[in-house]
């Protein structure tokens, strides 16, 4: 690849952080205040970050790069189940079904919206 060529930017989907507590089901693309059988993640929104907990058997990993720049090889997973996502960072998610997703956002004061896309 030539230096002036770049990887196309992923199509970013939006998540409205409408409540202090939220659950994320990426198979059904549902982001709600109530846990469902398919929930992958749980979050709590604070003044300047979002606290995530992966629900078993899902795994998460935190990257210090913008969500639009996250690649599959960046999302190396260990046994991480808890992370605090700050502005400009990316949370990699590996679901129980083997899907890998990237979630992140940029905010100046308080997180209101997150962006995400499916890596694989």
Written overview of the protein:
There is one protein chain. The protein is globular and about 30 Å long. The protein is mostly beta strands. A five-stranded antiparallel sheet has the order 1-10-9-8-6, with no helix packed on it. The protein has no helices and ten strands. The mean pLDDT is 90. It has strands spanning 13-16, 21-25, 30-32, 41-45, 49-54, 59-63, 82-86, 90-94, 100-104, 113-118. Helices cover 0% and strands 41% of the residues. The relative contact order is 0.23. A hairpin with an 8-residue loop joins strand 9 (100-104) and strand 10.
**How is the biggest beta sheet arranged?**
5 strands, antiparallel
Cα separation of the termini = 22 Å
Task: Estimate the mean pLDDT confidence.
Answer: 90
Provide the helix percentage. Answer: under 10%
Q: Enumerate the strands of the largest sheet in spatial order, edge to edge or round the barrel.
A: 1-10-9-8-6
Number-wise, the strands total 10
Global outline: globular
Coarse structural class: mainly beta
Work out the strand percent: 35-45%
The helix/strand series, from N terminus to C terminus, equals EEEEEEEEEE
Rg calc: 14 Å
Unreliable stretches (pLDDT < 50, length at least 5) are none
Number of helices: 0
């Amino acid at each position: 690849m030539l230096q002036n060529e770049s990887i196309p930017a992923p199509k970013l989907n939006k998540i409205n952080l409408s409540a202090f507590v939220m659950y994320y089901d990426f198979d059904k693309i549902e982001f709600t205040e109530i846990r469902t059988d398919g929930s992958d993640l749980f979050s709590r929104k604070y003044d300047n970050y979002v606290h995530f907990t992966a629900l078993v058997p899902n795994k998460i990993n935190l990257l210090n790069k913008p969500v639009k720049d996250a690649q599959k090889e960046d999302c190396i997973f260990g046994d991480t189940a808890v992370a605090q996502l700050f502005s400009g960072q990316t949370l990699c998610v590996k679901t129980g079904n083997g899907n890998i997703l990237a979630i992140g956002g940029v905010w100046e004061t308080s997180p209101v919206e997150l962006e995400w896309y499916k890596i694989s």
